Hints:
The longest helix is centred in the first third of the chain and has 24 residues, at 47-70. It is elongated, with a radius of gyration of 42 Å. The protein has helices at 3-19, 27-31, 33-41, 47-70, 74-77, 109-123, 137-140, 175-182, 184-187, 228-243, 271-274, 294-299, 316-324, 337-341, and strands spanning 127-128, 192-201, 213-223, 249-256, 259-268, 283-292, 308-315. It folds into 2 domains: 3-76; 107-343, 2-Layer Sandwich (BirA Bifunctional Protein, domain 2). By secondary structure, the chain is α+β, with helices and mostly antiparallel strands. The protein has a 7-stranded mixed β-sheet. A hairpin with a 2-residue loop joins strand 4 and strand 5. Adenosine-5'-[phenylalaninyl-phosphate] binds at residues 170, 172, 202, 204, 210-211, 214, 216, 218, 256, 259, 285-290, 311-315, 317-318, 329.
Amino acid sequence: MSDYTNNTLIAxxxxxxxxxxxLDNKGDILKHPKFKQIYANIKDLPADERKIYGQEANALKLxxxxxxxxxxxxxxxxxPIDVTAPFAPNTPVPERPNILRANQGSxxxxxxxxxxxxxxxxxxxxTSIESREIDDDYHMFxxxxxxxxxxxxxxxxxxxxxxxxxxxxxxxxxxxxALKMFRSNLAKGEPIAVVIPGRVFRNEDLDATHEHTFYxxxxxxxAENINVGNLIAVLQAFMNExxxxxxxxxxxxxxFPFTEPSFEFAIERPDALKKGRAEADQWLELLGxxxxxxxxxxxxxxxSNKYTGFAWGGGIERLVLMKNNIEDxxxxxxxxxxxxxxxx
Length: 344
Ligand code: FA5
């Protein structure tokens, strides 16, 4: 390179270095008047100097670019983040892989039916709370008017831990808790209306309608001037709605220490489940019920002179058996996939 060329480049280079800190980005280097001058000079150079001049000019450009880059604050060097939606908001969301609908499982038919049962009662005005799977002597017996040593205790033969805790034999163990939980409704002129599903355990001889572990649904209604007619009306309304048809029902006297009077409520088996059964066996007991005994209300500090109520407790499995023409309760816990898949 001739001295002229070399000196020109060095002069421009020095000048550029002094002004470089005022440049905001690399692109400005090419727009700088001095740099434009460097490129403009090329055409005036002798042919043999152009190549080396061009290389020097490019090396200078890279050097200057690096300087500009290094003088930028860190935030300017970071890649910008795209905060816009990664897809057009109105395009359909792509379908997820089909793992959840694979043939691997489903909601158990009992739980599926329980949802429907709770839904019907909720439309009839009942709140629902959960039962529990371990309880004590007070809630299993004393709060329900079973005096100590009373023979009626033997009807509920269940399991007890060495600490005296009891696997509940019926969901009635929740009556005292539910009455206390909602008794403030009464002072406001509102009824206590609650249903309580739960799992119960009995020392039982198994057959087509008896399991050792099964589900019950307890129902409680308390207000002023309640009578047996109100009880039957609620049960009948539930049955018609749940079965989607008017079924033949039968109510007959029974004995429970915690209701007075007490009844058993049965429905006529559907035709498919009647076959080969004697006349007396055409009915299936679905639940026990009655007007709540005054002692049960007193145990929950509710004025039994002012308020009356009814309660019932029924087997969930038996309802589902009748609705779906299932001939044996033991299918539910059998784990037989052929049986369970029918309810998908
Ligand atoms: C009771 O358990 C009372 N607690 C019901 C009750 C509640 C009466 C509130 C009054 C007021 P029972 O033992 O009859 O009653 O059982 C009630 C229902 O549970 C039966 O009608 C039946 O549907 C179901 N059930 C009883 N034993 C079994 C069993 N081993 N397997 C399946 N379902 C059963």
